[in-house]
Specification:
With 359 residues, this protein is of the alpha/beta class. Helix content is 43%, strand content 16%. The chain binds nicotinamide-adenine-dinucleotide. The site of nicotinamide-adenine-dinucleotide has 19 residues, from loops.
Length: 359
Amino acid sequence: MAHRITLIPGDGTGPELAEVVRDVVEATEVPIEWEMAEAGEAALKKHGTLLPQKTLDSIRKNRVALKGPITTPIGTGFRSVNVALRRELDLYACVRPCKLYAQAPTPARRVDLVVVRENTEDLYAGVEFAPGSPEAKKIEEMADGKIAKNAAISIKPISEKATERLVRFAFEYAMQHKRRKVTVVTKANIMKCTDGLFLEVARQVAKKFEGRVEYEERLIDNMCMQLVLKPQFYDVLALPNLYGDILSDLCAGLIGGLGVAPGANFGTETALFEAVHGSAPKYVGLNKVNPTALILSAMLMLRHLGQVQASQRLEQAVAQVLSERRHLTYDLGGCATTREMGEAIIQKLKALATHEISS
Ligand code: NAD
């Protein structure tokens, strides 16, 4: 039976990427029935909203979605469609594997780590107060001189519940994917309440996995330096939302840039697969951006669907194209178009399938 998947092309360079990725997934021969859905600028023009209810219903029904990037509009009441989607669907764990498949424009030689980012709270909760607002004034009073007059204020909520499920997810992910170690990253020495709670809960969760998965702690500033100098020492990283966001771009840089960094968001009911990168507005319509990040996100989706052989074949096809360096987009030093790089991956997939049949 075919897997029914919600496909959201997104906006900006999203639609041109989604078209290529759809062809690549079809070349894996996994039976998939795509249900098209809109979000972002396309949805706003057609339905008057950036995130139509129909799109949310489609994801809830199918439980799996593949999504192109979506531009965050400036000056509307909407914080971000991406943040709203994660919140609406309670996609609490954001998983971003960073693997160096072949030599890339990066000094790193060996990188194979996974960023597991909390997706629902922290400074992304959207609790902000403008300077001089009654709420800001009230907080200013409570802060007893620690906040300057007329400061803008953002609140950083970290809860035991959200932390527990995120860290447990990171450990279970490590077990499931035969990974050795989980490193929990905070700034608990300074943010004693919020990051302090994250760390305390992480330690309790880690105890339950003792003897099965190694546990270690790092401070976020030191972690950034460690990752640049010796990324090969790290495996699974579990972090609060904002640090996770920043660190995943750093890790994308270690493997050649945003063009090759895939991602997935998991909740208890649904999973949404998307690249780390955004809509790259300056390249819209040029057929120029790298499709690898979204193709590898689709590879993670196939793995999630239980299509292990097809996902491994797709990963191998991507690795071959990256290491041969004949069909690379501009960001990796090549001059292939989005479509040409996608076609090269399709050809590799076909060759690998033929080889499997004949051997
Ligand atoms: P961006 O990721 O779109 O671009 C950052 C840089 O990376 C640019 O130089 C861009 O050209 C390059 N880049 C991005 N994707 C690439 C690809 N596939 N191949 C080659 N190069 C690529 O980030 P931005 O410019 O800060 O954001 C643009 C818009 O996207 C904003 O509205 C932002 O809010 C949104 N955004 C969306 C998502 C998402 O949909 N999940 C994620 C991040 C940003």
